[in-house]
Amino acid sequence: MYGISAGQDAKIYAKADYDHAAAMLGSNVTRLVDNDIRPEWLPDGRLWYMCLSENRAEYKLFDPVNGKKIAASTKRELFEKASATQPDRSRPSRNEVLSPDGKYSAFIRDWNLWIKEVATGQEKALTTDGIENFGYATDNAGWKKSDKPIISWSPDSKKIATFRQDQRHVSDMYLVKTKVGAPELSAWKYPLPGDREIIRIYRIIIDVAKDSGKGIVKLKMGSDARRGTLCDDISCEGGFDDVCWSDDSKKLVFVSTSRDHKLENVRMADCETGDVKDIFSETVPTQYESGQGKINWTYLSATNEIIWYSERSDWGHLYLYDALTGELKNPITKGDFVVRQVLRIDPVKRVIYFIAGGKEPGVNPYFRYLYRIDFSGKNMSLLTPATGDHSVSFSPDGKYFTDTYSQPDVPGITEVRTSKGKFITTLEKTDLARLKATGWKPPQPFTVRSANNRWDLYGLMYTPTDIDTSSKYPVIVYIYPGPQGGSVGSWSFNAARGDNQALAELGFVVVLLEGSCNPDRSKSFHDACYGNMAENTLHDQVSGLKQLAGRHRFIDLGRVGIWGHSGGGFATASAMFKFPDFFKVGISESGNHDNRDYEDDWGERYIGLETYDKDGISNYESQANEVYAKNLKGKLLLIHGNMDDNVPPYNTYLVVDSLIKANKDFDMIILPNARHGYGSDRNYIMRRRWDYFIKNLMNAVPPEEYKIEIKPDPRIEL
User: Rounded to whole angstroms, what are the CA distances from 349 to 318, 352, 369, 396?
Assistant: First the structure.
């Protein structure tokens, strides 16, 4: 075993040790946090929130116009006192899409698109020729799938923009449930990078007032790849992405994305004739994206302009285009920082409000700040000056916004400001007094240099609350290499970020590092591993740990473990195979170990299309973990759900097959009927993860079959 001297007795962990660790999980911790609020705006411009303090919940309503605040012990009492109407939470069924005027809902039946009159329940088929796997508005293929139609209603509720989706010629995926008796097969369309044909969409506009099947206008263009500008899918924000209607519902501006995400064509369709005009295009050598977490382009029909997002300068910025000529009018933002999300556009005052990171000097570039700028690119101003990561929400009329700001080690403060940034009031300050009384402490932010010494990298380190800095502690790396996310994720305050502190309480140092190739930085930073996802930020992880160990003598680089889920599972196995002398113990959960066995749109976006060298070897093969499984030296636990419809379990089976052929010892857990997130099995896997690191990284003995308990917060009204 690693890190234990010959003859040294193994430590035996008691149930109380695990109880202490479990006390750092989820609501076991957050139930001790007071005044941590999530304000919501009401249609009349006031806002309300629930404020939790010791043993009670209080409901408050605030009016930013007059500064008046009302409090009550229940939500109902609050709204009665305030003479306010609660937000209408009524929704159509989960598989229906309501029209803007609320009169109709659209749904899919038998591969065709239908609408229903909400008041009467009367139904009508809008299309009639849909057939199996060539239906209308369907979203039933790949890992992200549903029975909800993918459509965009026109502003006047008289038209629908959608598509007919051809998925007849792509691969099928098969999973079999674990049950007594005859096997139950789950089968659906799941395209792969090796498929010659992928899902194609044929864009249409439907006039809902016309008779069944008579209102279809086919856009006069070829089919598009089922791709989007923001993520891998065509519906990343819940609806039909990358389409914008004109105010009069006569024009539709949309973006066609190529199969490999390298080409974006911005087009305008005449909704009466189906004529399509190309406005402008953008080509990138790697992959295009329209923002960080939100699609940032939009069409302004009143002035015939398009606000476009591009990383052409190596940084994500906004540009103003003429929608009639396709000519660039002017850059809107510029500089060495990243525009992440456009929150609000005022087309009358010609002002844009947006979230950006990296502009403020000497500040963590992942911290989000709110800015305001004119369409012309002039008069840019910072509206949220306090240091930290800012979460912003505008009032319905855009005159005010709430701003909750915090840091990983600094609790949140929530303020209300005007749209120009003028301070109105502080709603609440998060109070950690009761939590700190238990001995809890926040993670320690740190900065290291990338392995190539090109960039500063940022991370969090968790240590035991009773750490003895004269002792040596094994290290566990939690990894999620992206490239669409990262190990840290949100940089706002979180009292319980997964089980990181829980693991630390068991005697580990836990490290989360955002390596190069992850988003929210420059384009070159994000593209650092384009074409080779197997890079997995691992060189940065190793280099970063060595730099930390140089600062903290309690870090034992002779005992380093690593774990991750999904992309992190891929990275974990890769770490164990490619850095076998550095990483001694790994737990790989549900990894996409060979992207030829994972959905086409992810791999083709970040690796490119599958190609072959002169020897017939695929460019995907050199990145597949099973190729390197023979290098395993340490202890590896592989975990997968056998009904995982995101990353099919065959990804892990390929690694298992190679390990067996290489005569390697390893461990494996297959979760019957579990999908990608493990559902009710999550706490079981968490406990097994603790056990595995304690046994193999500490040479210690965990308590037998401990059951993790997470208590609900008693203050929350059920």
Answer: 17, 9, 21, 17
Cα–Cα distance measured from residue 371 to residue 385, given in angstroms and rounded to the nearest whole number: 10
Q: Is 63 contained in some domain?
A: yes
The Cα–Cα gap between 254 and 116 comes to 27
Torsion over CA of 288, 162, 186 and 227, rounded to 10 degrees? -10
Q: Please give the backbone phi and psi of residue 112, each rounded to the nearest 5 degrees, phi first.
A: -120, 160
Whose tokens are 């999530």? That residue is 38
Residue 281: count of CB within 10 angstroms of its CB = 14
* Tally of structural domains, the chain: 2
Q: Establish if 486 belongs to a structural domain.
A: yes
| Average pLDDT for the chain | 95
* Other beta carbons less than 10 A from residue 454's beta carbon: 12
Residue 83 has what pLDDT? 84
pLDDT of residue 454: 98
Same structural domain, 638 and 692: yes
Question: Do 65 and 25 share a domain, yes or no?
Answer: no
C-alpha to C-alpha distance for 473 and 508, rounded to whole angstroms: 6
- Among candidates 411, 500, 347, which has minimal Cα distance to 24? 500
Q: Is residue 115 part of a domain?
A: no
Taking residues 625-641, report their average pLDDT: 98
Q: Answer yes or no: is pLDDT of 151 > 50.
A: yes
CB 687 within 8 A of CB 703: no
- Of 86, 101, 119, which residue constitutes the final position of a domain? 86
Q: What is the CA radius of gyration of the chain?
A: 27
Q: Which two tokens stand for residue 145?
A: 């799938």
Q: Which residue, 86, 121, 149, sits at the end of a domain?
A: 86
Q: What span, in angstroms and rounded, lies between the C-alpha atoms of 125 and 536?
A: 48
Whether residue 80 sits in one domain with residue 19: no
d(CA 651, CA 472): 36
Q: Tell me the per-residue pLDDT of 261-272, one tens digit each, with 9 for 90 and over.
A: 999 999 999 999
Residue 91 confidence (pLDDT): 65
Residues 497 and 557 reside in one and the same domain: yes
Q: What does each C-alpha distance from 55 to 34, 37, 438, 680, 685 come to in angstroms?
A: 10, 16, 17, 28, 32
Spatial contact of 38 and 60, defined as CB atoms under 8 Å apart: no
CATH classification at residue 651: 3.40.50.1820
Do 515 and 578 belong together in one domain?
Answer: yes
| pLDDT band, very low/low/confident/very high, at 710 (cuts 50, 70, 90) | confident
Backbone angles phi, psi at 372, to 5 degrees: -130, 140
5 against 467, higher pLDDT: 467
- What is the C-alpha separation between 36 and 565, in angstroms, rounded? 29
Is 463 in the same domain as 511?
yes
Cβ–Cβ under 8 Å, residues 218 and 252: no
Burial track 24-37 (b if 16+ CB lie within 10 A, e otherwise): bbbbbbebbbbbbb
pLDDT number for residue 6: 37
Q: Are the C-beta atoms of residues 532 and 603 closer than 8 Å to each other?
A: no
Q: Is 47 in the same domain as 19?
A: no
Residues spanned by the domain of 66: 43-86
- Which amino acid is located at 211 in the chain? D
If asked whether residues 82 and 20 sit together in one domain, one would say no
**Is 572 a member of any domain?**
yes
Confidence check: pLDDT of 461 > 70: yes
Is-contact 135 204, C-beta < 8 A?
no
Give per-residue pLDDT as tens, 220-247.
999 999 999 998 778 888 899 999 999 9
Q: Which two tokens stand for residue 465?
A: 């609350």
Residue whose structure tokens are 């903290």: 552
